[in-house]
Design a protein that fits this description.
Blueprint: H1 2-25, H2 56-68, H3 72-85, H4 90-100, H5 103-107, E1 111-115, H6 122-130, H7 136-142, E2 156-160, H8 165-174, H9 176-180, H10 220-236, H11 238-246, H12 278-283, H13 286-312, H14 317-330, H15 335-354, H16 358-371, H17 376-403, H18 407-420, H19 425-451, H20 455-468, H21 473-491
Antiparallel strand pairs: 1-2
Helix pairs in contact: 2-3, 2-13, 3-4, 6-7, 13-14, 13-15, 14-15, 15-16, 16-17, 17-18, 18-19, 19-20, 19-21, 20-21
Length: 495
């Protein structure tokens, strides 16, 4: 009996399980093959490529221009290409970090509000508030600005950090309406939810970081204060926009406005016409340009010196100087380039002088003297080379005279050369070679003069023979006889 009850209960459970299986089997078997619902339009993937043919300076300038209008993808491609060319670029790496980093993690959550003034640009605000104009991009991302160049006067932006006391006082002074408001109980901050714009082919690339949803937007009280400041700016700052438009920015002293700013309407809310154009904001990037220029200057100098060293190590000083002169053409006051160029010109001059190219060697030292007029080493070497050039010119002249049979004249020039340059081997050799012939010539001329009773000429010529060869006895004997004869003649009564 007990066994029958258990069997009956087991059969019942089996029947219930079969019903469940049949119930699940009623579903459409093709349903699993149905495509998943579409999640939205496909976003085209754009691979950005750096523009070919740009110099390092042009590529950095292009990168800054692209970031100013929010084109991060192309800017990142240009900056990566720039880093390949200039690996030590701290500026390029800083900008790449600003593109990829989380702006909240980089700048912090704490912030205060700043009302954009006429003439402000994102870089000028970055310089004024963050102390670095080159942080303009991370500041733009901190404020979720798609196109930083389009900020308008009167616009409110977040500035990371605490408002300094001087700024707070200034803000209160500019906005007396905010002081007059009665205190309002704090409310729960509103949460800003931004719907990202659909990316286009041109704007594709690194996703723009937005302000996280848990960063509070302006509270009603803050918004009211911003409106008061904006209205006050419309009354006080707007008439000043005309003067600002006609006065160059302090950071760009050479800037000249194309036209005067339009008349401002007192009390009106500033609009886009009050903000500087994108080109004007680009022109106001002089601090950025200065940073780029300083970095490129250091890179150019370092590269020129390294390339020159490579050629100098192979004794190709002309090629080394081509790179150094190219750098000096752009940075003529760079001390490192000047020192390297002077050293290369000295080595090239020695090389040219050793090859007998004294004219070229002198030109090399002359150029070194132009680079550093007060360099004592160059001055001394130039004096030595000038003397050597003079000696070589004299030697050529003596050789020509010797070839014409004018032995005495050639000998005198060779002797002069040995005084200027005692170690001149060729001149010393010719002096030794011509010495007997010249001595004999002077002796013969002295004897002719003596026979003609031209005692003064005889004494002079015989004396020259002794100058050439002090041991030439005939010349000494005849000279002594001529001197005695002259004394006797002078002692006669008629004289």
């Amino acid at each position: 009996m007990r066994f029958g009850v258990i069997l009956f209960f087991a059969l019942g459970l089996t029947a219930l399980g079969g019903c469940k299986l049949l119930e699940s089997g009623d579903a459409d078997p093709d349903a699993a093959l149905a495509p998943a619902p579409a999640l939205g339009p496909e976003i085209p993937v754009v691979l950005f490529q750096p523009e070919p043919g740009l110099t390092a300076r042009e590529r950095m300038r292009k990168s800054l221009d692209l970031l100013q209008v929010g084109q991060e993808g192309q800017a990142k491609a240009e900056l990566n290409a720039y880093v390949l060319e200039v690996p030590d670029s701290r500026l390029a790496r800083s900008l790449l970090t600003q593109i990829d980093a989380d702006p909240i993690e980089m700048l912090g959550r704490e912030h205060f509000l700043y009302i954009v003034r006429p003439g402000d640009s994102i870089s000028s605000i970055s310089k004024k508030m963050l102390g670095d104009p080159m942080k303009f991009h991370i500041l733009a991302r901190y404020n979720a600005l798609d196109n930083p160049s389009e900020i308008k006067a009167g616009q409110t932006i977040r500035v990371p950090g605490k408002r300094q006391a001087s700024r707070t006082a200034s803000s209160k002074k500019e906005s007396p309406a905010s002081e007059a408001r009665a205190p309002v109980a704090k409310k729960k901050p509103a949460i800003v939810k931004k719907t990202p714009a659909e990316p286009s082919a041109q704007a594709a690339g690194p996703a723009k970081a937005r302000i996280p949803a848990d960063i509070p937007a302006e509270t009603p009280e803050v918004a009211a204060e911003a409106l008061a400041v904006k209205a006050e700016a419309g009354k006080a700052a707007e008439p000043q926009a005309v003067a600002l438009a006609s006065t160059p920015d302090a950071s760009t002293p050479d800037e000249t406005p194309d036209k005067a700013a339009p008349e401002a309407t007192p009390g009106a809310t500033p609009d886009a016409t009050d903000a500087p154009s994108a080109n004007d904001q680009m022109a106001r990037l002089s601090p950025a340009d200065s940073a780029v220029a300083e970095e490129l200057k250091a890179v150019t100098i370092k590269r020129a010196i390294l390339k020159a060293k490579g050629y100098s190590d192979r004794n190709d000083h002309s090629s080394a100087l081509n790179h150094l002169e190219e750098g000096l053409l752009e940075y003529p006051d760079a001390a490192e380039l000047q020192s390297a160029a002077i050293a290369s010109y000295i080595r090239l001059s020695d090389q040219q002088a050793a090859a007998g190219q004294l004219g070229d060697a002198e030109k090399s030292l002359r150029r070194a003297s132009e680079i550093a007029p007060n360099d004592p080493q160059v001055g001394e070497l130039l004096a030595v080379l000038e003397r050597r050039q003079q000696v070589e010119n004299l030697f050529q002249e003596a050789s020509q005279l010797q070839g014409q049979g004018k032995t005495v004249e050639a000998f005198e020039i060779y002797k002069r050369i040995t005084v200027l340059e005692p170690e001149h081997a060729a001149a010393n050799k010719q002096v030794a070679k011509l010495k007997p012939a010249v001595t004999e010539t002077y002796h013969r001329q002295g004897m002719i003069a003596l026979r003609q009773q031209d005692l003064d000429t005889a004494i002079s010529k015989l004396g020259k023979a002794l100058e050439v060869d002090p041991d030439y006895t005939p010349a000494r004997r005849e000279r002594d006889r001529a001197i005695d004869l002259k004394k006797k003649i002078e002692s006669l009564p008629n004289n």
